[in-house]
Every structure is written in structure tokens, then in C-alpha cells.
Amino acid sequence: MAALAIVGGITLANLAVVLVVWLSYRGDYSAFIRSFQKIDRGSKILIGTSGEGDDPPFKDLTQYPMYYAPTLAVHYANAFVPNVFAEAGKQPVQARTEVRRLAIPYGGPVPIRLLSAIAAGQMTASDDAAFIRTWYRDYNYLYLLGTGVANPLPDMLKELDRSERFVLYKIRRTP
What is the dihedral angle through the alpha carbons of 81, 48, 35, 149, rounded to the nearest 10 degrees? Predict the structure, then answer.
């Protein structure tokens, strides 16, 4: 009987944590859904992060619910979001042939420091990161996850929307 009480207590504590985290993200998910109206239908959207892009973010797991919120643009804006196609056999959805090279093989958001370095010509993406090699030409929008993020590339990114946990940028595409 004591074991049952302990298991029940642990279960209730976990449910309480999940509820608190879930409720704290309601406003952000609503902001995401509103931001999809600012995206042209059929666009390509890249997800970046002001952090290191760890998947999952072990330093703060409460940030994890935001990692995949931008993938809702697939439904709301008929957009291509490469994170939907993280691993073959894991997700039942496959990228079309014409965008398959943009599918992210590991699933997490891309660190903005890496995107900035590529855009500045300071580095090139490795073969396993070919999906971002020419990100500034391949994608139309960038969702940058993180709090209090200033525009890292003002000449390339135009801010369209902002929430406490993300910024939506229109990418000024270069040839």
C-alpha cells in the first residue's frame, strides 16, 4: 500500500509539472498561430535558436515545447518546415523530391551563430548540414527561438512578429 501511495504521489507531481509548463506556453502557441497569417502560403521556413540547438535542450527542458511549434505552419500556412522530416522511419511524412535536400537529418533548430557565420561567408556547412549551406537563398522565413533575441542579421532579416519566446523574420533573399 505504501508503494502505491509513493507511485501515486510521483504521478501527481509529474502531472502538476506538466500542467504548469503547458499552461505557461498557451500564450506563445496562440502567438505562433497568429504569426502564421504573416507567412505566404507554400513558403519554406527554417527554425533557428539563440541557444546551441541541443535536441532535447537538457539545460532547460521547459524550452522543449517550443522546438516544434513552428512545424504547425505546415498546416496553417501550407509551408515546408524541414524539422517535420527529422529522421527516416521516425516520422510518417516524407519530403517531396524537390525539397528533400532541405530536410533536417537530426531534427533540432539550427543555432543562429552557425547561420550568421554561413551568411557572412566565415564558414561553410559540413556535408551533414547541407540543408543550411545556402539557407539565405533556400528559405523564405526564419523562426528564431529564444528569449530577448535582437536581430542578428539586420541586413538579411526583417522582423515580422515577436513573442516572449520567438521572433519571426522574413529572409531578404539574395541570389
Answer: 180
CA 138 to chain centre: 16
| CA atoms within 13 Å, Cβ hemisphere of 56 | 9
What tens digit of pLDDT does each residue of 69-115 get?
A: 898 999 999 999 988 765 666 666 777 778 878 877 666 788 888 88
Predicted TM-score (pTM) of this structure: 0.81
Q: Which of 146, 167, 145, 147 is nearest to 157 (CA)?
A: 167
What residues contact 170, with CB distance under 8 A and at least 6 apart? Answer: 140, 141, 157, 158, 160
CA distance 120 to 86: 27
Distance CA 49, CA 7 (A): 37
Give the amino acid at 39: I
Closest C-alpha to 142, from 96, 111, 121, 100: 111
DSSP 88: B
Q: pLDDT tens-digit profile of 127-173? A: 557 778 889 999 999 999 987 778 989 999 999 999 988 999 999 97
